[in-house]
Design brief:
With about 120 residues, this protein is an all-beta fold. The protein is built from no helices and 10 strands.
Length: about 120
């Protein structure tokens, strides 16, 4: 069955950095575009970064987040720099229906909590 295991979150001060990881299993990872989503308290889940199936195309909602992937390890990463209070959320990964879609394909993993606080 499809599974996503997110890790790397934590408590960080404003301006700090974190690198999130998502280990995927149960499907052919290299066939799919992947996305990182986040959900802040009281808000809807939103797509914050996407990457094509072979990593040639990437996009993010801001210039502080960089998405990458290692198809040999079935893992997608999110490097987050200069973190701000508003980045506080639970972060998830999932397959995208297509690179240009924000629609996800599978059930969510447990996510990883990112808290930005001084």
């Amino acid at each position: 069955q499809v599974q996503f295991v997110e890790s790397g979150g934590g408590l960080v001060q404003p301006g700090g950095s974190l690198r999130l990881s998502c280990a995927a299993s149960g499907f052919t990872f290299s066939n799919y575009a992947m996305g990182w989503y986040r959900q802040a308290p009281g808000k809807e889940r939103e797509l914050v970064a996407r990457i094509g199936s072979i990593g040639g195309r990437t996009d993010s909602v801001n210039g502080r987040f960089t998405i990458s992937r290692d198809n040999a390890k079935n893992t997608v990463y999110l490097q987050m720099n200069n973190l701000k209070f508003e980045d506080t959320a639970v972060y998830y990964c999932n397959c995208l229906r297509t690179y240009f879609s924000s629609d996800y394909l599978y059930n969510w993993g447990q996510g990883t909590q990112v808290t930005v606080s001084s």
